[in-house]
Amino acid sequence: FVNVHSMIHSQMKKELKIGSGIEEGGGVDNTNTCSYTAQPKSNDIAFLQYTSGSTGNPKGVMISYSALQSNVQAILHHARVECEANNNTNIPFGDCSTLSWVPQYHDMGLIGATIAPFCAGWSCHMMSPVTFVQNPLLWMELMGKLRVHFSLGPDFAYHLAARKFNEKEKLTGKEPIP
Length: 178
Hints:
With 178 residues, the protein is an alpha/beta fold. It has one domain (4-15, 42-166): 3-Layer(aba) Sandwich (Rossmann fold). Helices cover 42% and strands 14% of the residues. A hairpin with a 2-residue loop joins strand 6 and strand 7 (175-176). The longest helix is centred in the middle third of the chain and has 22 residues, at 65-86. 16% of the residues are buried. InterPro entries: AMP-binding, AMP-binding_CS, AMP-dep_synth/lig_dom, ANL_N_sf.
């Protein structure tokens, strides 16, 4: 059973080097290091997720730690299965990377592209949503250039990017794509 809260805290300590100060030069006061001890219960609220408002006013939905944990577990389980099935480079699962342009106020951007990869210890590359809309092909180009293992986006994003390829670039198996 993966404890998302503990994973985030552990990863933050590692990434931010909490508790380790600069020994030489006295640049950091080690007496005030982080001693974070809060342990939320599974039904405690992790955050409020606002609906899009497409059918009315946006509404805040309370997301519990257990719901967040279940979502992160499902994402990472699926990612691990895909990684093991398609990993011909033998890259360890913890060394994967991701690229996203989906904003973090959207559940896909917050949980799928930020929290889950963070819990797994992956490198996360972020692209501005505005940049994506202006140049959807850049998303595809960066996936290859950065050699990311996972990227996510709603269906329209893939359709939009595919439409932006010019006719000479649309090839598969040396056959043109209609």
